[in-house]
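--- STAGE predict ---
source: upstream dedup step, 1 unique chain passed
mode: sequence only
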Amino acid sequence: MKRISKKQLLLAAALFASALLLFLLLRPAPLPVEAARVIRGPLQVTVEAEGMTRVADRYTVASPVSGRLLRIGLEAGDPVAPGTILASIVPPQLDAREYREASSLAGSASAELNAAEARRRQASANLAQSRLRAARYDNLYHEGAVSKEGWEIARTQAEVLEKEERAAISAVSAASFRYEAAKSRFDRHLAMKPVEVAAPAAGRVLRVYEQSERTVAAGAPLFDIGDPATLEIVIDVISSDAVSVRTGQLVSIEGWGGGSIIKARVSRVEPAAFTKTSALGIEEKRVNIIALPERTDPRLGDNYRVLASIVVREAPEALKVPSSTLFRRGSSWRLFVVERGRAVERQVTIGLRGAFESEVLGGVRAGQQVILHPQNELKEGMRVKVQER
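--- STAGE serialize ---
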């Protein structure tokens, strides 16, 4: 057998080293990926939406009459008690034609009142006479001096006259009211007397609609009054999400500027939806969810914008992965697990799905590394290099 020379061994070693070096230089570099661990812990499924604060017991005080609103001294934030005078409104004066018309109407109403008084007096006199006649007929009937028919006619006539007197009294009252209403229209002194607007309940002035003196119409809003401590949160969510919201569910309020998270509970789901146009110009059916905070912060006022998270489902101890690790292949959910520096594709069964985490019912175990945001070029068995997050 021919012996291999030392020179041949060195040549073979050099060829092997060259081939190995060429392989190492030409093979694909590991794909850099980010990874996270499969862990156990609490998982919540939430409905995220914007909302606003609203004073629960809110009163909008409006002008009861048309006229000139005197300058308002109250400002937003001022406390008020029930019956506190909030504003004064001077009704407009009558012009010459309106004054003559009102004077004539008042004169007519006065005449109607006098006529009604005369009819009442006549009815009272007739009733008194009829009662005396009925009393005499009653005595005579028991003595047998008059017939039963005559006795019944006397009693019936007295009853009819009693009803006529009551009707006459009511007519006098109605005529008196009409006279007072007509008289107030032409009484210039009364017309210049301000109409005072009082606070309906205790609280604080939330908003002043008209600060300066100006002419207002009847029904024009003047103030918003309420207690800022009785805040509620109004959250409008898409109707398809609202069907999973129930009374008593936990709500986390954040993004209001105070830094801390305010806890609240769902108190009411409004039964009717409304149409709202989104920022993308799409019409959506949305539903108002009303939540009551467990505590209120004095810095949080009426009509403030907040971000709300409504917990609709939760699991205290779930095997979970970041939702960004999951992708669909056909009808199944899949993810990539890092094993010995290579990506291994696994089919998994998904349970609860939260905004950032999802429950895994099978396919992986706690502690395994899973790849976040799997790239399109990532394939089964490909070498990967996990980057620090």
